[in-house]
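Justification of resources, computational component.

The compute hours requested in this renewal are based largely on the per-chain cost of generating structure records like the one below. Each record pairs the submitted sequence with a full structure-token output. That output is archived, and it is also reused by downstream analysis tasks.
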Amino acid sequence: MEDGQILELFYARSEQAIAELDKKYGRVCHKIANQILNNAQDAEECVNDAYLGAWNAIPPQRPDYLPGYLYRIVRNLSIAKYHSNTAAKRNSSYDVALEELADCILGGASVEEEIAEKELTKLLNQFLGTLNKEGRILFVRRYWYADSIGELAKRFRSSNNVISVRLFRLRRELKKFLQKEGYLI
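The structure output for this chain reads:
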């Protein structure tokens, strides 16, 4: 079923919309949640909560790109669940992926930091635009979807070491790019 048809089911308040959403995008939603949480039950809960979130938001919202809209909901819910589960513990490859970026990006919670976060988002998008297709995919798969080095090595038909080196170089390029743009690191 096409995304437009699924959205029409949401607007008609048909519960079939959720079934079609799950059929078309459920596998990727579960993968995103599992990569972050490393727990099937928690991942299932986050995916179901994402479906409920989409149900409550559509209408009035009409996302331009339904899978991206849904994946972002799943990712945000999974990250929130991850933080509540691991208040003082280290968990899965998600921690490792975040630690790799820690030298390039600072996090925050104040209003000033939220404004800086929006600026950082803009800069990250610009940086991704400077990369070739393979570099963009590698960066996004590692730092958005939290794919492990092993999974990336299989995807790119390469060794773990080669992928690690490429990610290191991408982070170094990101750091240089951010510094050149005046982002304080």
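Residues 2 and 52 are 20 Å apart (CA to CA). The two ends are 45 Å apart (CA to CA).
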